[in-house]
């Protein structure tokens, strides 16, 4: 037996058990090999079920485990760090024809995965309001001023009501009041020990994505203004400061 | 990484007690759902054990709570992903991550499994069996030598729970483990539940199996619950599920083991269907009682 054969048979239920297995009582070792096959696939499905709890609730246990099984066989883990298993699961859901009737499902899964990433992201202290105010007041550096955001921070832009759907499954919101096809943008970040999920205007989402991509404050704000002329820079900076989400102020190459 | 100055110099050999030993008391696996309960109630336990891979994350609550808990408790770091029985070389990046984690938390013990869990690029997330023959022996010893060299400390090797045997095996599991211990100087993490499960699954006598292990190298014990299945002949096939209370037969085998080893740090493992903390604490207290009895008997 090579481990190649053993591993291949674990990940393909249609393959026979590997050659060279034995059982003390002469029973068919293929039956015993099924324990390993089952352990592997169930542990992978369980890992996905832990990460994608709301996705599971939205489709039910049976449907979820069926799609998780297909994903696990198609994309087994390539890392020993199981906490981050399932990065490709939202895309897999999106391309899975039986889930086509639930257009919000993949984005809810994306939000859930980002929550896991945020939960385990590095601990980096935020800069204070005084430092931000001073940087904004400095006319020499302002045109190229950029901001590093907390490593836990991410934005999910969706054509569905991802935040409301997620919140309804936390008992924060009544599911019957949620219109699933209302576009929402989610801000995910960890503040202290708590991962927070906030609904933000699309323009704010664009602003944050620009900053994360290395744009200057001015350029990010201009991008946001092009989406929504009511974009309020002071208000979003206030939110970021409140959440300790600005971790560095730095010059960028992009002018205002 | 800045671990080099932290470890004893090479000529001092492999350090067993660099950060002191895990006390010969009972301990529990550390579960995120129990972090706060532990900090608030400060349960009387000998140590906590973590799965190394769960803490190989950059930051957040896991490190926050483990740092606090580590201040008051001894720690055992138990790896599940090193794939010591793997055909390929050890993953050096994973060893680096282990070294970093060990440097950060200075655990009293580091252990891994006599099993493989990855192949090529794929991590299989299970502890898989290998034939017991000279080729596997050489590989396992080479891998443990490398772990000792990289981590500069002695590791404990855990005996596996297995469901199949191999036509290619030429050595008994106990002889295989004894030889690994002899050649590498590693310690034995004696999983009593695994002994019970494997002996049932392969028609062996658990007590004779315990006797044949290198007990002088035993440095820690694991206890856990199993699940029942049957093989193709209808014979009972026990599954190491870590999802149930410890069976009476395993408690009995534990006592039998302690009579031969003397008191050893004993971990109650529970990774599935995790009950409320007091339920696990009660199991740990049950193990603690056996350890007390054992201490009295050793003293007498």
From TrEMBL, chain A:
It comes from Candidatus Accumulibacter aalborgensis. Pfam families: DUF2063. Residues 3-93 form the Putative DNA-binding domain. InterPro entries: DUF2063 (IPR018640), DUF2063_N_sf (IPR044922). This is Putative DNA-binding domain-containing protein.
TrEMBL record, chain B:
It holds the Pfam family MbnB_TglH_ChrH. It comes from the Bacteria. Belongs to the UPF0276 family. This is UPF0276 protein ACCAA_700036.
